[in-house]
Each structure stands twice: as structure tokens, then as C-alpha cells.
Amino acid sequence: MNSELNRNSSEVTEFILLGFRTPPKLRILLFLVFLLIYVVTVVGNISTIIVTKMDSRLQMPMYFFLRNLSYIDLCYSTIIAPNTLANFLSNEKNISYNGCAAQFFFFALFVTTEGFLLAVMAFDRFSAICSPLLYSVHMSQKVCVRLVTGSYVCGCINSMIQTGFTFNLSFCAENRLDHFFCDVPALIKISCADTFVNEIVLYILSALIITTTTTVILVSYASILSTVLKIPSTHGRSKTFSTCGSHIAVVCLFYGTVFFMYAQPGAISSPEQSKMVAVLYTLIIPMLNPLIYSLRNRDVKDAVKRILHRR
Length: 311
Known about the structure:
Layout: H1 2-8, E1 14-17, H2 24-54, H3 61-89, E2 94-96, H4 97-130, H5 135-138, H6 141-166, E3 176-177, H7 184-190, H8 196-229, H9 234-262, H10 271-296, H11 298-310
Parallel strand pairs: 1-3
Antiparallel strand pairs: 1-2
Helix pairs in contact: 2-3, 2-10, 2-11, 3-4, 3-10, 4-6, 4-8, 4-9, 6-8, 8-9, 9-10
């Protein structure tokens, strides 16, 4: 496959990431801001993984999924952030052809997997609230592992298709990507081949993934809402639904930006707008996810206190 990809784009051996159009004086400031965001992302997600793994009271499906979400956020932000930080300080903003293909493959893998995992987490909340007596059966350890594995498989399938279609394009002499990482819209824009099929494939796959996962999420929360409204106590309704608050916030952030970027054809024609949206889902959301779950989740906060108290 690699030889075929290289043969079809022999004119280009590397890409130049143009990144952000900022004056030189602002590059250091942007570098520091992006560095801070990445450090908080790394610390927050690693802390979530450690806390949910160490505390015996958090050995439940909900936190197993949260641990995987933190791992995914850590991975796909790490695929993007270090190279972006290096480009702020370097005049050479090039990335090899194979490096670009690898960056895109792993980014597409993890971002798609996150979409499916968020749907799995919605189903987990549905099972816990709507079928509490059967929860241990519906969400056994074996089922949880299979659901997470299935999310990765779906992510891998989408990533292989997208990478195959994108890097079979011809790029001729133009190798300047008006982006800060290797993403489909920017790559399609500089190709000298007919990209109609690629754009259709991007749109159909994105729409299929978003439709499938959001349907699971919406149906799950419709059932949850119906169940919660039947609880006579106001305090009981508030307490039950509060367990879903963090997940709803994460879903809205993630799907809002991904839909804007990939599921509408017009997004491809606006590079600067695409960059700003891309910053949200590649850097900001992976930073916010552990903060949202930690600040809104009493179990996680109590676990942190217990771990600190032991020391």
C-alpha cells in the first residue's frame, strides 16, 4: 500500500504546514498558550486515568469508559500538539509525506473512536438509569470490553478508508497545506486531481458516523428523560439526571465542532474558520473533558481526596 501511495504522488515528498497567519511577535505568545493547553491536557487526562484505575470505588463501567475517553483524548492531542508547538519556533514547517499520512491516520482513528465511545457512554447511562436491575448483565466486564473494542474497530475502518482515498490523490507541485496539521479538507484543497469522489466519501462517512452515534445518544437520553420525569421526588430527579450532566456537556462540545467541520460541505472552503474549529476539537476539548468530569463528578473528587490523604 505504501508503495502505491508513493507512486501516485511521486511529485510531492513532503508538505509544508502554513499553520496560523500571525505576526512573528505573536508566535511566542501563541506557543506559550498552546503549550499551557497541552500541559493541562496531559496532566488532566493522565490524572483521570490514574485516579479511576487506583480507586477501588471507581471500578465501574462508567469509569472504565471515562478512562478510555481520557486515553483517546491524550493520544489524539499528542498527535497534533507537539508538531504544532515545534512549528511555532521553527522556520522549517515541513512534514514528510509518510509522516503526514501517519498523522492523519492516527488522528482519524482516535477522533472517530471518541465519537463511538461517547455513544457507548450514553448507552451505559441509559442502562444504569432505565434498567438498574439488569445493569450488571447489560454492562458486564466482557460487554464493556467488546463495546470499547468495537469503537476502536469502527475508528480504524473509517481511518483506513479516509487515508486510502486521501493519499491516493495526486498533489503535483503544490505542497503547502493551509492548516496546522494534516487534515482532509486542507489536503483535498491542494490536490491537482479531481476530488469530487473524495469530498463525497468524506461527507457520506462523516454523516453516517455522526447519524449513527447521535441516534444512539438521542434515543438513550430520550429514554433517560422519560424515566427521570416519572420519579416523584424533585431531589431524586435532580440527583439521577446529574450523573448525565458531564456526558451531555462533552457530547455537545465534541459533536458541535465535528459536525461543523466535516458534515457540511461548505466547511472545506474556509481555511481560517476550519483552523479555529480544529483548535477546539484537537486541543481545547481534550483539555476540557477531564476538567468537566472532575469538577462535576463527586465520586472523582472524593477519589482524588482519598488518594491524596493516603500520601
